[in-house]
Amino acid sequence: MSLEFGSGRPFVVASKMLRAAISKIKSRIGGGGSSFINPDDYNVVKEGRAEILFPKAETVFYNPVQQFNRDLSVCCIKAWDNLYGNPARNGKNGRRNGRKRPTCSDEDATSSGKRRKLKNNAVEPSAAEGAAAPYMKILEALSATGLRAIRYAHEIPHVKQIVANDLLPDAVESIRRNAEFNKVDHIVTPNLDDANVLMYRAKAENTKYHVIDLDPYGTVTPFVDAALQSIEEDGLMLVTCTDLSVLAGNGYPEKCFALYGGVNMASHESSHESALRLVLNLLNQSAAKYRKSVEPLLSLSIDFYVRVFVKVRTSPIEVKNLQSKTMITYHCSQCGSYHNQPLGRATERVSSKQKKSVKYSVAQGPPVDSKCKFCSGTYHLAGPMYGAPLHNKEFIEEVLRINREEHTDDVYGTRKRIEGMLTLAKNELCDSPFYFSPNHISSVLKLQVPPLKRIVAGLGSLGYNCSLTHAQPSSLKTDAPWEAIWHVMKESDHAGKKDLAKMNPNSTGFRILANEPQWLPDSHREALAKLSFEPNEQSGQLEKLRKLKIVRYQENPTKNWGPKARPNAPSK
Ligand SMILES: C[S@@+](CC[C@H](N)C(=O)[O-])C[C@H]1O[C@@H](n2cnc3c(N)ncnc32)[C@H](O)[C@@H]1O
Ligand SMILES: [Zn+2]
Predict the structure, then answer these.
(1) Region (Disordered) spans which residues (predicted)?
(2) Residues 256-288 as b or e (16 or more Cβ within 10 Å = b)
(3) Residue 383's beta-bridge partner residues?
(4) What domains can you pick out in the chain, each with its CATH number?
(5) Does the complex come out with an ipTM higher than 0.95?
(6) Which of 72, 148, 162, 166 to mutate to test the pocket of ligand 1 (most atoms within 8 A of CB)?
(7) pLDDT in tens, 328-341
(8) pTM of the predicted structure, to 2 decimals
(9) Count of alpha carbons within 13 Å of 291, Cβ hemisphere only?
């Protein structure tokens, strides 16, 4: 039972303090189901503001490498709370009174329909904000030790209850013990259940969650339907998938299709971005049948897994747009060029009375011939997958602000990496799925590898935009067509014109260069005449980002770093 003293901030603080004190006394006297805990009987791990007791024989899952995931999740839930979460601040159901939400492409995400940003970029508190009462109900559906739930209880404001659930009795005992040891058992409720049973029950009882965190072994697929049905309007879902051999590997196209409803870009450099798009496709397709839409706030490919942060809301109109936001991709198995094909068209029309409407129609295609026009290679088909922006810039900015202004290195060990990875994500071209690496293209065309900034300057001089990607180092996203990419890469070679006579006529590179008059007829060459490799705005932006000395990888990876296997059953 929770104690309510009122809604003003002093009362909330008093309520929290009193509940913590009662919990402390209960754990000292061993009453109310509590037991005496002797920390010497356990290994103690400190992460964030939590201290977790592990049985000396490891029977419950803990992976220290996932600290990045947990640090980032704390930032993201706080950002969601500030921007969309608190119903008292944002109107009924947390909605922003029907105002248009900014998208990834919004240059100044602070300009429309939101609370003002302050000088230091913090979101302006509303009148009600200072007095915000704990309201947030979080479900950690697959909790293991309870570490994540306990960190959320310590580190996230406005949390009223966190249900930390696991299927294993040992895990639930660990959650109970650790919640008590950390004095957050007034917030963290341990629960023993199959996650799906728990979530469908929440739906049936109408006790939905504002935030649902799904962090399974392998794929999230079995938990998606129940989570979508037991989340509050505008709720935040945090989703991990660690089965990258399926989502991004070469071996299991049929398994990828069965689990995610789409095929990945096997053997292609962009396979980690296609993994993200497949997970977003799964979420959106599953949501659509309940007239719900899933908006990606932040979608990251990290080490050996993907993690997406999405906002879920009932929106029949957005569901109508899903067809045109879904695509298949043709990618050449030889040269790697790719071409995206949306599955539908949504065309905005304005009537003579200035009334806007959208016409939905079938897509036209295919965008390619049966053989690649550059190298005559065979196309492989990937998708269907999500084709719209992967991130919401407003959200990333708020996460970065929290990471910079509210968190410190001693508590958040992966703070610099969060800054690095999210800065890259924020600056990604949002309407240009996938990327290429000049390294790869150079190996195809047998060129010296040019500096990244030279290629960006070249494409920029032709009027195209470029960005880095968080998903792979030294790779570029661009809105340039492949004709321009091949041409700029070829011309970038300091060694000058390639001597075709010296190339293997069976090689992919030879075919691309020999076929040039076909794929780049004279009539199109005029547009490329202004090519220059002098620094320009595009290359300047890239250099500025690279100078930030971005930390993208896990610092100090440990021995046997990577996804961790399930723990063994305890020896009896
Ligand atoms: C990868 S671990 C979770 C790690 C945890 N979220 C963290 O941050 O440390 C996955 C957990 O899911 C639990 N699990 C697997 N299937 C489940 C199910 N159907 N219902 C509930 N828990 C389940 C396992 O027992 C395991 O403890
Ligand atoms: Zn090709």
Answers:
(1) 87-125
(2) bbebbbbbbbbebbbbbbbbbbbbbbbbbbbbb
(3) 263
(4) 65-95+134-320+389-431 (3.40.50.150), 435-556 (3.30.56.70)
(5) yes
(6) 166
(7) 999 999 999 999 99
(8) 0.87
(9) 5
